[in-house]
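Researcher: Quick test of sequence recovery. Tokens follow.
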């Protein structure tokens, strides 16, 4: 019987597209996007070769902007792009044969931006505004014929691969299409004619059967995208059925990506998709938004977990350092690997003009760290993460195009910047400690919520109020109510054993909510209003934090403040209070303990060692890393840019504190392997 099971598993594995034929993609594919500039073919070829030789990429995708323009007959864009592509290819091959693959990016087909001379195809009509947009509707048969012809002509140029860009979408930023073509299609599916206005009302839940109508509309949206992708694949197949094709998704359209990736992939090829997690326009708080972007990455890799190859979106649009720094791009790719991406779509050069200097630092940092990325991708296969978990709902898809993903706030605002290990996972995993606010609770089913509350969870006021509304107040042991008159206050921590070293100490706070204890719950802190410099001249004003262990074995900590109240959550004394609560929950194998703004992603490897990614989100460089590690430590190694591990010194102190002799500069990842 066992032999039959093993044979079945092996046959299933070997039937997987990755094993059916030679994998057309490198182990860690890094796709360099090549801007086409007429008259600069030699310079473009030299830039491609230099980046390839330095290790900064192993694939090149020459960008063709093909959305149809002009009326009544669209310009022959493919004719001009084909001529320039052949010149680039000729110049590239004169520089010597290399191992990099050269392909073509269908950079725009439905359209990214407003057009000066739009073609006479049906445009998308947004379900949000009812207004016509600049992009073309995927259901227009004439537009599909145009896209099919472009794909056939691309295949005739004999590229090693092709890639379809993320303008091929209907949800993200567009909110679906209610043009006449889509209205006829959804009416046919419903079995009766529905008007555009009634459909929009249904999506806003203001008519009976709104969800039923919305789901029928979502199926229509999906089918319209699949029909366009089949037309594009038919074009490729008419010349080369084996041409490997990658897809680029947008975040809120991710639910369509597994099917689209399969349609586009080509005969016996693995599916490949670039997720939508770039750090666009980050001229401001590049650092502090990093943890929020991690969740955006994680939820997409979860939705696309059955796609064979996932690429990170290391695109610094508008492609210069006044907006996105090289370290921002590097740190994005490092964390994307630890969330399940095995490669990257890399766009280092400027757009619109030939401006290679604007991308010089992007190319340098990717070239220097090529070995780093490969080693991290290798280790990810045995990486088992732990930490404070932002839940990923089982139902990550949503029939209503008006709604995007929510971003759980605890990790995005607090824990992801305090050095507690950051995790994103579904409820039915080995994740043990969760952080909840109202926005993510609204995305969870009752069974998911009960599963989480039977483990360990930290809640803010909004979460406790939402849980009470859902009928699970008995699992958290408290009721949270808004106070009539908010006041400034401190918090006096109680002598509860849960508070650990913070027992009987104080932390900054402000009183907008308060906790009412149920049977079995205990107070962790009380509000105290101080009238002058004497702490004795004050008045207790209610319970600010509480703990409860429920009948399912779950340990719950509740704060009578919203997590978005950053000034009261982000404080060294509050961090120590959080540390004590997490220890009550069972703790983490590693925590960053110093008072600095640190992102930490960590997990265990197959041999029991800890892999930890530290990212300094603050402006102050650090000379050492101070962490608390459970158990004894025999050796600590640091991953170098070339992919090799170097031993680093450390000092072990009482209480599991370990001071590691390595610096940590702003937005420059430090990856350690800690052997116990």
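Model:
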């Amino acid at each position: 019987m066992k032999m039959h099971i093993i044979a079945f598993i092996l046959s299933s594995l070997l039937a997987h597209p990755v094993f059916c034929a030679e994998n057309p993609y490198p182990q860690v594919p890094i796709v360099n996007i090549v801007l086409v500039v007429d008259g600069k073919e030699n310079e473009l070829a030299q830039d491609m070769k230099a980046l390839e030789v330095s290790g900064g990429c192993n694939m090149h995708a020459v960008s063709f902007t093909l959305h149809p323009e002009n009326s009544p007959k669209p310009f022959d864009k493919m004719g001009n792009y084909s001529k320039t592509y052949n010149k680039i290819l000729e110049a590239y091959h004169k520089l010597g044969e290399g191992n990099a693959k050269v392909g073509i990016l269908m950079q725009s087909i439905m359209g990214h931006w407003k057009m000066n001379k739009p073609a006479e195809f049906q445009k998308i009509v947004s379900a949000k505004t009812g207004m016509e947009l600049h992009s073309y509707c995927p259901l227009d048969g004439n537009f599909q014929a145009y896209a099919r012809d472009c794909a056939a002509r691309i295949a005739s140029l004999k590229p090693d691969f092709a890639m379809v860009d993320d303008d091929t979408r209907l949800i993200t930023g567009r909110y679906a299409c209610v043009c006449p073509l889509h209205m006829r299609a959804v009416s046919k599916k419903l079995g009766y004619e529905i008007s555009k206005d009634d459909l929009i009302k249904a999506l806003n839940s203001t008519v009976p059967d709104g969800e039923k109508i919305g789901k029928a509309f979502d199926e229509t949206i999906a089918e319209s995208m699949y029909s366009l992708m089949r037309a594009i694949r038919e074009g490729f197949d008419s010349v080369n059925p084996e041409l490997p094709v990658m897809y680029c998704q947008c975040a809120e359209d991710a639910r369509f990506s597994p099917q689209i990736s399969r349609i586009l992939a080509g005969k016996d090829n693995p599916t490949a998709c670039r997720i939508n997690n770039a750090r666009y326009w980050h001229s401001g708080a590049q650092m502090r938004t990093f943890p929020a972007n991690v969740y955006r990455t994680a939820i997409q890799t979860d939705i696309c977990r059955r796609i064979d190859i996932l690429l990170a979106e290391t695109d610094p649009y508008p492609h210069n350092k006044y907006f996105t720094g090289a370290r921002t791009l590097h740190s994005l790719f490092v964390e994307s690997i630890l969330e399940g991406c095995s490669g990257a779509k890399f766009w280092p050069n400027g757009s619109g003009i030939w401006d290679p200097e604007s991308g010089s630092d992007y190319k340098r940092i990717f070239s220097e760290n090529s070995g780093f990325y490969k080693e991290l991708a290798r280790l990810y296969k045995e990486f088992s993460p732990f930490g404070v978990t932002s839940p990923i709902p089982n139902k990550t898809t949503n029939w209503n195009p008006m709604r995007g993903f929510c971003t759980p706030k605890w990790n995005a605002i607090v824990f992801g910047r305090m050095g507690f290990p950051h995790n994103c996972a579904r409820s039915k995993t080995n994740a043990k400690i969760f952080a909840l606010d109202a926005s993510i609770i609204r995305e969870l089913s009752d069974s998911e919520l009960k599963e989480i509350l039977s483990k360990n969870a930290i809640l803010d006021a909004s979460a406790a109020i939402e849980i009470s509304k859902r009928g699970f107040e008995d699992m958290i042991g408290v009721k949270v109510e808004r106070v009539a008159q908010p006041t400034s206050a401190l918090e006096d921590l109680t002598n509860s054993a849960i508070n650990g070293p913070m027992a009987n100490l104080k932390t900054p706070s402000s009183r907008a909510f308060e906790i009412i204890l149920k049977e079995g719950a205990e107070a962790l802190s009380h509000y105290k209003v101080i009238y002058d410099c004497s702490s004795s001249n004050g008045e207790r004003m209610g319970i600010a934090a509480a703990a409860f262990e429920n009948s399912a074995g779950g340990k719950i900590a509740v704060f009578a403040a919203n997590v978005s109240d950053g000034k009261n959550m982000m404080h060294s004394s509050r961090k120590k209070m959080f540390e004590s609560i997490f220890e009550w929950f069972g703790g983490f194998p590693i925590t960053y303990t110093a008072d600095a703004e640190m992102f930490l992603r960590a997990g265990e490897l197959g041999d029991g060692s800890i892999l930890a990614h530290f990212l300094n989100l603050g402006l102050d460089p650090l000379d050492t890393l101070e962490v608390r590690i459970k158990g004894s430590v025999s050796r600590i190694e640091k991953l170098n840019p070339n992919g090799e591990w170097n031993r680093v010194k450390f000092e072990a102190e009482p209480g599991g504190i370990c001071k590691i002799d390595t610096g940590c500069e702003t937005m420059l990842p430090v990856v350690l392997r800690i052997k116990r």
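The CA atoms of residues 132 and 565 lie 40 Å apart.
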